[in-house]
Amino acid sequence: MGIEQLSNHEETKSITFRLPKRILEQVELEAEQNNVSENVLVRQILTNYVDWFRLSKGIGMMPITKESLRKLSEHLDYTSINSIVEDISSMIKNFSTIRYGRYDLSTTLDSLSMYIQMSNSQLVHLKEGNTHRFLISHNLGIAWSLVLEQLFKSIFGEFIDNSQIKFKTTDDSIIASVALTSLA
Length: 184
Hints:
Layout: E1 3-5, E2 11-13, H1 21-33, H2 38-56, H3 66-73, H4 78-100, H5 105-118, E3 122-128, E4 131-137, H6 142-156, E5 165-169, E6 173-179
Protein backbone atom coordinates (compact mmCIF):
# COMPACT_ATOMS: atom_id res chain seq x y z
CA MET A 1 0.00 0.00 0.00
CA GLY A 2 1.37 3.39 -1.00
CA ILE A 3 0.76 6.67 0.81
CA GLU A 4 0.38 10.00 -0.97
CA GLN A 5 -0.66 13.53 -0.10
CA LEU A 6 -3.69 15.34 -1.55
CA SER A 7 -3.72 19.08 -2.08
CA ASN A 8 -5.85 19.54 1.07
CA HIS A 9 -3.16 17.73 3.09
CA GLU A 10 -5.30 14.68 3.74
CA GLU A 11 -3.15 11.55 3.91
CA THR A 12 -4.28 8.76 1.58
CA LYS A 13 -3.51 5.07 1.21
CA SER A 14 -3.75 2.83 -1.83
CA ILE A 15 -5.74 -0.39 -1.50
CA THR A 16 -7.02 -3.08 -3.85
CA PHE A 17 -10.57 -4.47 -3.76
CA ARG A 18 -12.03 -7.52 -5.44
CA LEU A 19 -15.54 -6.64 -6.67
CA PRO A 20 -18.14 -8.36 -8.84
CA LYS A 21 -17.73 -7.59 -12.53
CA ARG A 22 -21.24 -6.14 -12.84
CA ILE A 23 -20.46 -3.56 -10.13
CA LEU A 24 -17.19 -2.55 -11.78
CA GLU A 25 -18.95 -2.18 -15.13
CA GLN A 26 -21.55 0.12 -13.55
CA VAL A 27 -18.81 2.18 -11.88
CA GLU A 28 -16.96 2.49 -15.20
CA LEU A 29 -20.16 3.54 -16.98
CA GLU A 30 -21.10 6.09 -14.31
CA ALA A 31 -17.57 7.52 -14.28
CA GLU A 32 -17.57 7.85 -18.05
CA GLN A 33 -21.00 9.54 -18.05
CA ASN A 34 -19.83 12.02 -15.40
CA ASN A 35 -16.46 12.57 -17.08
CA VAL A 36 -14.45 11.51 -14.02
CA SER A 37 -12.05 8.66 -13.38
CA GLU A 38 -13.20 5.46 -11.68
CA ASN A 39 -10.91 6.37 -8.79
CA VAL A 40 -12.63 9.75 -8.30
CA LEU A 41 -16.08 8.14 -8.45
CA VAL A 42 -15.21 5.38 -5.98
CA ARG A 43 -13.71 7.99 -3.65
CA GLN A 44 -16.95 10.02 -3.86
CA ILE A 45 -19.03 6.91 -3.15
CA LEU A 46 -16.94 5.91 -0.15
CA THR A 47 -16.81 9.48 1.16
CA ASN A 48 -20.61 9.78 0.91
CA TYR A 49 -20.99 6.49 2.75
CA VAL A 50 -18.56 7.37 5.55
CA ASP A 51 -19.67 11.00 5.91
CA TRP A 52 -23.43 10.53 5.51
CA PHE A 53 -25.06 7.16 4.85
CA ARG A 54 -23.54 5.13 7.68
CA LEU A 55 -24.58 7.82 10.18
CA SER A 56 -27.97 8.63 8.64
CA LYS A 57 -29.46 5.26 9.61
CA GLY A 58 -28.82 5.95 13.28
CA ILE A 59 -30.55 9.34 13.21
CA GLY A 60 -33.75 8.18 11.55
CA MET A 61 -33.22 9.09 7.89
CA MET A 62 -35.04 7.13 5.22
CA PRO A 63 -35.29 7.44 1.46
CA ILE A 64 -38.44 8.86 -0.13
CA THR A 65 -39.01 9.75 -3.75
CA LYS A 66 -38.89 13.41 -4.65
CA GLU A 67 -42.36 13.21 -6.19
CA SER A 68 -43.79 11.69 -3.00
CA LEU A 69 -42.23 14.47 -0.93
CA ARG A 70 -43.60 17.07 -3.35
CA LYS A 71 -47.12 15.64 -2.99
CA LEU A 72 -46.85 15.51 0.79
CA SER A 73 -45.53 19.07 0.88
CA GLU A 74 -48.54 20.43 -1.02
CA HIS A 75 -50.73 19.94 2.05
CA LEU A 76 -48.49 21.45 4.72
CA ASP A 77 -49.85 24.15 6.98
CA TYR A 78 -47.86 26.47 9.26
CA THR A 79 -48.03 24.07 12.22
CA SER A 80 -46.84 21.14 10.11
CA ILE A 81 -43.98 23.19 8.66
CA ASN A 82 -42.83 24.15 12.16
CA SER A 83 -43.01 20.51 13.29
CA ILE A 84 -40.95 19.35 10.29
CA VAL A 85 -38.38 22.10 10.91
CA GLU A 86 -38.05 21.01 14.56
CA ASP A 87 -37.44 17.41 13.44
CA ILE A 88 -34.86 18.35 10.80
CA SER A 89 -33.10 20.80 13.15
CA SER A 90 -32.84 18.10 15.80
CA MET A 91 -31.52 15.61 13.23
CA ILE A 92 -28.87 18.08 12.03
CA LYS A 93 -27.81 18.82 15.60
CA ASN A 94 -27.52 15.08 16.36
CA PHE A 95 -25.70 14.43 13.10
CA SER A 96 -23.21 17.26 13.80
CA THR A 97 -22.55 15.96 17.29
CA ILE A 98 -22.08 12.35 16.14
CA ARG A 99 -19.97 13.16 13.06
CA TYR A 100 -17.76 15.91 14.50
CA GLY A 101 -17.99 15.33 18.23
CA ARG A 102 -19.28 18.87 18.72
CA TYR A 103 -22.12 21.19 17.77
CA ASP A 104 -21.08 24.65 16.65
CA LEU A 105 -21.72 27.00 13.75
CA SER A 106 -19.07 25.43 11.50
CA THR A 107 -20.15 21.80 12.02
CA THR A 108 -23.80 22.77 11.73
CA LEU A 109 -23.14 24.53 8.44
CA ASP A 110 -21.33 21.45 7.09
CA SER A 111 -24.14 19.15 8.27
CA LEU A 112 -26.88 21.38 6.83
CA SER A 113 -25.06 21.56 3.48
CA MET A 114 -24.63 17.80 3.44
CA TYR A 115 -28.32 17.26 4.33
CA ILE A 116 -29.45 19.52 1.48
CA GLN A 117 -27.14 17.85 -1.05
CA MET A 118 -28.06 14.33 0.08
CA SER A 119 -31.73 15.31 -0.19
CA ASN A 120 -31.19 15.56 -3.95
CA SER A 121 -31.35 19.35 -4.00
CA GLN A 122 -28.80 21.59 -5.64
CA LEU A 123 -26.81 23.78 -3.28
CA VAL A 124 -24.38 26.55 -4.14
CA HIS A 125 -22.59 28.26 -1.24
CA LEU A 126 -21.05 31.62 -2.12
CA LYS A 127 -18.91 33.74 0.19
CA GLU A 128 -18.80 37.49 -0.35
CA GLY A 129 -16.86 39.08 2.50
CA ASN A 130 -18.72 38.26 5.71
CA THR A 131 -21.89 37.31 3.83
CA HIS A 132 -22.57 33.70 2.97
CA ARG A 133 -25.21 33.09 0.30
CA PHE A 134 -26.87 29.72 0.02
CA LEU A 135 -28.66 29.10 -3.28
CA ILE A 136 -30.87 26.02 -3.05
CA SER A 137 -32.92 24.59 -5.91
CA HIS A 138 -35.24 21.80 -4.76
CA ASN A 139 -38.25 21.70 -7.14
CA LEU A 140 -40.59 20.66 -4.33
CA GLY A 141 -42.99 23.62 -4.24
CA ILE A 142 -43.50 26.69 -2.10
CA ALA A 143 -44.21 24.75 1.10
CA TRP A 144 -40.75 23.16 0.94
CA SER A 145 -39.20 26.58 0.30
CA LEU A 146 -40.90 27.73 3.51
CA VAL A 147 -39.57 24.65 5.34
CA LEU A 148 -36.03 25.54 4.22
CA GLU A 149 -36.48 29.19 5.18
CA GLN A 150 -37.65 28.23 8.67
CA LEU A 151 -34.87 25.63 8.91
CA PHE A 152 -32.22 28.29 8.27
CA LYS A 153 -33.81 30.54 10.89
CA SER A 154 -33.96 27.69 13.40
CA ILE A 155 -30.41 26.47 12.88
CA PHE A 156 -28.63 29.80 12.53
CA GLY A 157 -30.82 31.34 15.25
CA GLU A 158 -28.83 29.36 17.81
CA PHE A 159 -25.65 31.17 16.77
CA ILE A 160 -26.63 34.56 15.33
CA ASP A 161 -29.53 37.00 15.42
CA ASN A 162 -32.16 36.12 12.79
CA SER A 163 -32.12 39.74 11.59
CA GLN A 164 -28.77 38.86 9.95
CA ILE A 165 -30.54 36.39 7.61
CA LYS A 166 -32.30 37.58 4.45
CA PHE A 167 -34.32 35.36 2.11
CA LYS A 168 -35.49 35.35 -1.48
CA THR A 169 -37.98 32.52 -1.80
CA THR A 170 -39.71 31.10 -4.88
CA ASP A 171 -41.85 28.02 -5.47
CA ASP A 172 -38.84 25.82 -6.15
CA SER A 173 -35.82 27.60 -4.74
CA ILE A 174 -34.52 29.72 -1.91
CA ILE A 175 -31.61 32.09 -1.50
CA ALA A 176 -30.50 32.68 2.08
CA SER A 177 -27.98 35.47 2.69
CA VAL A 178 -26.39 35.20 6.13
CA ALA A 179 -23.92 37.56 7.81
CA LEU A 180 -21.45 35.13 9.41
CA THR A 181 -18.47 37.04 10.70
CA SER A 182 -17.18 34.01 12.63
CA LEU A 183 -16.86 31.95 9.42
CA ALA A 184 -15.63 34.62 7.01
